[in-house]
Design brief:
Layout lengths: L1 H9 L3 H8 L3 H8 L10 H10 L4 H9 L5 H15 L1 H11 L1 H7 L3 H17 L23 H10 L3 H9 L2 H4 L13
Helix pairs in contact: 2-3, 4-5, 6-7, 6-9, 7-9, 8-9, 10-11
Amino acid sequence: MVVNELMERAGITKYRLAQIAHIPYMTINDICNGKTSLGRCNAETVYQIAKAFNVTVEELLEAAKEQRCSFSIFKSNVCHRLKELGDIDFLLQTLSNDDIRRYYEKAWYPECLYLLAMVDYISRLNQISLCSDYDDLRSMKLSEKVFPSGVLALALAEKNDAPKEAAWKEAIPEFKRFNIVENEVRNVI
């Protein structure tokens, strides 16, 4: 996605980038369509793309790393990180990285509030006092309820809102406060 933005700013096509960077068109096409991540490309490919846009490899990779993924993938990644690290290490890492504030400053409000809800929920379960660094964010709320995709699909299939209503009733309070419907954060595969 970063490469698409750089091409748009430079006013060049994928075909032209492939010529300039001496990279096969299909590689550029896969990067632009999200089939291939810049972080997984070989060093020569990343170098040639960076050189074509007159940016450093570090700038290119950092920009690629900061690309926003879908909210469903974000939630899954957070839940997997919680499972891998355990409650206390998850809290320590999340708070020391200040990810909540970073997402807020980028105006990535669903991600910011989901992560804050997770931190508050895990803190409650472990009887740990809430981190006061985010008190200003605790009064925020998303303008519309955000449901898991499975709940939305079920409501659509049943042609009624009963699945959404049931999920809302069962939502974890820390998430519900921000208009996020989350019922299970530990049952990840």
